[in-house]
Design brief:
The structure holds 2 protein chains of 2 kinds. By secondary structure, chain A is an alpha/beta fold. Chain A is 43% helix and 18% strand. The relative contact order of chain A is 0.12. The chains are: A alpha/beta, B mainly alpha.
Chain lengths: 411, 297
């Protein structure tokens, strides 16, 4: 054997090893995603799709799932059209035809509820980034994991916020008023507020549902004015949120805290429609671009450059879901559904890109609910660059160097 | 309940109600003359609000001075709308006294205008700026009165009085009344029915413009802003009597008072139910409304 042929043989061997390695690297993990990509919720569906793509690109670029020989993640989409029936058949199709390893989705609680039941029946892990209906994780399922907070946690966190702020600033808060749109959402929130307020020992001085399409909310505002609550809790759609805020200012009604519930208060046009009248108001959100977490700003900048809009709470949940899946796959080291399921169940993700969430770690309880999922509270204030939403709660996520104005200044 | 609270609510009810009445005034005039329900009336209000908004934004005029631009612009807009969109339907259905198709056309105009506004201006809630009336309140002890709403009340009274005078005393006004009483007889007397229709529609739209100017300092402008006012106007017009000017104003004030005083005894969700309940009762027991003519010529 000549030196040359030896070298050739060595090279061939190397090439073979390399080929077999790359052959291994070509194993893919299929992630099926049921999302509303058309119909009324299409814009949220698209945000979820963008966020998933960005996360998967990052994960694959960083070498994929190393315990599976650098396996790459592959996203397969199905359009639910926000329709539960379509969601169910599409989930069946993803599992049976596309043979996906994991399913995620579906944003609309109404779709997620039956679709997760399908996955449970087949024993395929289903990660729900965000669908708020409480009962999704309350059916004793083994294969369903939810990252976002439950519906009832929004109201819970509103009251925790009040308590924390009371302690931090030493402000007396005794009376509370509920003012909410008279639809399903508002009345649902109000029922939970009532229980929470009673538990926390607040005196309820006003409980007022109003029609969202009202042309004049002065009567509601005069009722608030006469009730003189320390805390005003609001659940409003877009136009009425603006109208109430402006009318409150006109009548110089100034409770110590005005706290919204997202919805109309989180609408991008809320601040422009109310201008200074919304200053110092509080609102609850899933995530805000200024959340004081390492990597949050960079991730948002990257997303904005790529897709032209800021990350929303929903998009963050979808983004984080991909990292939760990657983390579980890494620890499972197998594509066997039961192993992936067990790995998901023991998730405790504190570091890496998923740590941009407003809370400290992603960890599922026995029902599959992310037990740490929390919401953030923002204050609207002007720090010299116009009015903006500033994260103030939980304190660990508070924007650096910002001291909340609490209680709100009296007018 | 304290008397002072009641007084406050009554004042607010009358002020807000008069503004509802002003919106309904244009609707009732168009009905009185053309005998058609103009479903696009709320959209005309929306157009008026955008016109007022842009005039103030570009010229910095005081909103109430912008009135002298908005009203003629809206008159022209309504006049042309009738001339080119509604008149052809009347002509095509000249044998039908109350052509249903006109109602369908006005509904179409409503959708087109609202969506056009959405397309052109986006769904944003626009607040008038500069707005010298923003948050202006007159304080009398415990009682707070919104200054722009008080002006709205005054403008409503002046507009209604002006319209009354115009219909009673001017030649054109008499021609309009003649046409509204009997369009064929009026035509035989040498009154051009089409001209009268155009003018009446123009005036009705101009009144929507006046209402828009009244609303713009206290209300945000957005593409579907007309819809809740539109619905309210129909109730008011039926309540007060279709085609009746004092009926529109009084109907407006009644609705305003219910909305304002009602919430002292119940949640504001229920006041809406009372308003529509009253609407149904009027339809059952006095279909011609409080001031309407019992017999339709």
């Amino acid at each position: 054997m000549t030196k040359k042929s030896l070298a050739t043989a060595a090279l061939t061997l190397l090439a073979l090893v390399g080929m077999s390695m790359s052959a291994m690297a070509e194993t893919v993990v299929k992630i099926g995603n049921v999302e509303p990509l058309s119909g009324p919720s299409a814009s949220v569906g698209q945000q979820g799709k963008n966020a998933r793509e960005m996360a998967v690109e990052e994960i694959n670029a960083a070498g994929g799932i190393k315990s599976l020989g650098g396996a790459k993640l592959e996203l397969i989409y199905a359009d639910s059209k926000s329709d539960p029936n379509v969601g169910v058949t599409e989930t069946e199709r993803l599992i049976n035809t596309d043979k996906v390893n994991i399913v995620t989705g579906c944003w609309n609680s109404g779709v997620t509820y039956p679709a997760t039941a399908v996955a449970e029946r087949y024993g395929v892990p289903f990660v729900v980034p965000v669908s708020v209906r409480d009962t999704i994780t309350e059916r004793g399922f083994k294969y369903v994991f939810r990252i976002a907070a439950k519906d009832s946690w929004w109201t819970r966190d509103q009251f925790t916020f009040l308590k924390d702020m009371k302690d931090e600033f030493g402000t007396e808060l005794k009376t509370v008023a509920f003012v909410y749109e008279n639809g399903d959402w508002g009345t649902g929130f109000a029922a939970q507020w009532k229980t929470l307020a009673e538990e926390a020992g607040y005196e309820i001085v006003l409980d007022e549902p109003y029609p969202s399409a009202a042309t004049d909310l002065t009567p509601v505002v005069t009722k608030i004015r006469r009730a003189k609550p320390d805390v005003l809790l609001l659940t409003s759609n877009a136009a009425d949120a603006v109208l109430i805020t402006n009318t409150l200012a006109d009548y110089k009604v100034s409770p110590k805290v005005i706290l919204g519930s997202g919805g109309g208060h989180a609408d991008p046009t809320f601040i422009s429609g109310t201008s200074d009248n919304s200053k110092f108001m509080f609102d609850i959100v899933e995530w805000e671009t200024d959340v004081n977490k390492p990597g949050a700003k960079e991730t948002n900048d990257k997303y904005k450059a790529k897709y032209g809009s800021n990350l929303t709470g929903e998009a963050v949940d979808a983004y984080v879901a991909m990292y939760v899946i990657a983390d579980a796959l890494e620890r499972a080291g197998s594509l066997e559904p039961a192993k992936i399921r067990d790995a998901l169940a023991t998730t405790d993700l504190k570091t890496g890109p998923a740590a941009i969430v407003a809370y400290d770690s992603i960890k599922f309880d026995a029902t599959g609910q992310n037990e740490n999922a929390a919401l953030a509270i923002v204050q609207i204030n002007d720090l010299g660059q116009g009015l903006e939403r500033i994260t103030v709660w939980p304190k660990t996520s508070r924007r650096a160097d910002y001291t909340p104005v609490f209680p709100m200044p009296q007018k | 309940m304290d008397l002072i609270f009641l007084l406050q609510d009554v004042i607010n009810g009358i002020l807000m109600g008069s503004i509802y009445g002003l919106v309904a005034l244009g609707l009732t005039l168009v009905f009185g003359v053309l005998k058609i329900i103009n479903f696009a009336h709320g959209s005309f209000l929306m157009v008026g609000m955008y016109v007022a908004y842009w005039i103030v934004a570009y010229t910095g005029l005081h909103p109430y001075l912008a009135l002298f631009l908005v009203a003629p612009i809206m008159y022209f807009f309504g006049y042309q709308m009738q001339q080119w969109l509604i008149r052809p339907i009347f002509v095509a259905e000249r044998d039908v006294r109350e052509p249903i198709t006109v109602i369908i056309v006005t509904t179409g105009v409503w959708y087109v205008l609202d969506n056009l506004a959405l397309l052109l201006f986006g769904p944003d809630y626009r607040a008038l700026s500069p707005n010298p009336l923003k948050g202006e309140m007159i304080e009398i002890g415990e009682i707070l009165i919104s200054t722009p709403k008080l002006f709205g009340f005054i403008i409503t009274v002046l507009t209604a009085a002006g319209l009354y005078w115009f219909l009673l005393k001017t030649r054109m006004g008499r021609a309009i009344r003649a046409t509204s009483l009997d369009r064929d007889a009026a035509s035989l007397m040498g009154i051009s029915q089409w001209k009268i229709f155009n003018v009446a529609f123009g005036i009705g739209t101009a009144i929507a413009g006046i209402a828009a100017v009244v609303l713009v300092p206290v209300y945000n402008v957005y593409p579907t802003v007309g819809v809740p006012f539109d619905v309210k106007s129909f109730v008011i017009v039926v309540l007060g009597g279709l085609g009746s000017i004092p009926g529109a104003l009084l109907g407006g004030v009644i609705i305003g008072l219910i909305e304002s005083i009602g919430p002292n005894f119940m949640t504001s969700t229920w006041t809406e139910a009372i308003v529509y309940g009253l609407f149904l009762l009027v339809l059952f027991f006095k279909p011609s409304g409080l001031f309407g003519q019992k017999y339709d010529w």
